[in-house]
Amino acid sequence: TTDVAVPSATTPADDATVTYRSPYFVTITLDDGDEYNGDSSDVITVTEALLVDEDDEEVDISGSIQTSDDNKFRIALTDLALATHEIHLSVTDGAGNTFATDPYVLTFTVEEAGAVSVDLQPGWNLVSLEGEPTDGTVATVFDADHSATKVFSYDNATSSWVSATRVSGGTWEGDLVTLDGQHGYWVYADTFTELEVTIPSGIGDVPPTPPTIALGAGWNLVPVIPVDGAATRDADDYFASVRFNLTRVLSYDADSGTWESILLDNDLATASGANKDVSTGAAYWVYMLEADTLVP
Q1: Cα dist from 197 to 15, 36, 194, 237, whole Å
Q2: β-pairing, 232-234 with 277-279?
Q3: How many Cβ atoms sit within 10 Å of the Cβ of residue 225?
Q4: pTM over 0.90
Q5: To the nearest 10°, the Cα dihedral for 259, 264, 268, 270?
Q6: Which residues make beta-bridge pairs with 172?
Q7: How would DSSP label each residue in 187-231?
């Protein structure tokens, strides 16, 4: 007999660290191939599948495995502990072959959805969140020990401000109650500090739709939503969906307290460098000739 080859691909990769979500899907792809002349035993059967924790406690997960071709196997794991886990997989093909080292072991570590932070300078800062926070309540994000004292946002639909101000006792008052990933924010801080929130990852009970941001005629305060996970993105690419109605993009330099123009290709064909990019964590003032929808 000839041994079944180890997986040609796995998601996650072996020894990877992944962010918690439930269910978490593990995919293991096996390619039995033609191991010898006349080999037709390309159907692989899982004989045992175990989830093993750091205390060597085993759970049978064979009932959570699905496959459409008897080569690619998808395993749905729910409520994983924030720890290191191993999947122990034993298989056989039509000729009775198994892994040379049986079982095959896939190791991965689950960590909590990471905190996302945005640096704040003393004074005014123009910022945004890169997604929807687990808890965006102003009083939670800027607790009693935080140096932020004022937060403003701009309603693009009504061209009006909403705000929150810290009052005596450290509590917040105003019509801005929560922060989200759909708006930009002016934050006034007394010291160097960070805006820190937790952005959950993965798909929840409802499948997600790609983000859009409604823009009105005139000035709009716009966040940067990193759909590709990148820290920066070319401004022409980010604003491509509204380019025909877009006339100006401005950023704010907290160090100098001055406006900076984000240069688009139509403004300067040879433009390059930082003033050609938008950055995750920043927000931008955008002037529109007509109402439109930004598709980041």
Answers
A1: 27, 56, 10, 27
A2: antiparallel
A3: 22
A4: no
A5: 110
A6: 166
A7: EEESSSEEEEEE---S--SS------EEE-SEEEEEE---TT--S
Q: Look at residue 268 in the predicted model and tell me its pLDDT.
A: 46
- Helix then strand count (H, E) for the chain reads 2, 24
User: Is the pLDDT higher at 287 or at 111?
Assistant: 287
Cis bond before residue 207 (omega within 30° of 0) = no
What tokens were used for 96?
Answer: 């009775």
Is 114 within 8 Å of 133 (Cβ atoms)?
no
Q: What is the pLDDT of residues 205-260, one digit of tens each?
A: 677 789 999 999 999 999 999 988 788 999 999 999 999 999 999 999 999 999 99
- In this structure, the strands spanning 218-223 and 123-128 are unpaired
Evaluate whether 176 touches 152 at the Cβ level (below 8 Å).
Answer: yes
Contact 278, 238 (CB under 8 A): yes
- The enclosing H or E element of 125 equals strand 123-128
Of 249, 260, 191, 261, nearest to 223 by C-alpha is: 249
Provide, for the chain, the percentages of residues in helix, strand and coil under a 3-state DSSP scheme, each rounded to the nearest 5: 5, 45, 50
* Of 63, 59, 61, 65, nearest in space to 27 by CA: 65
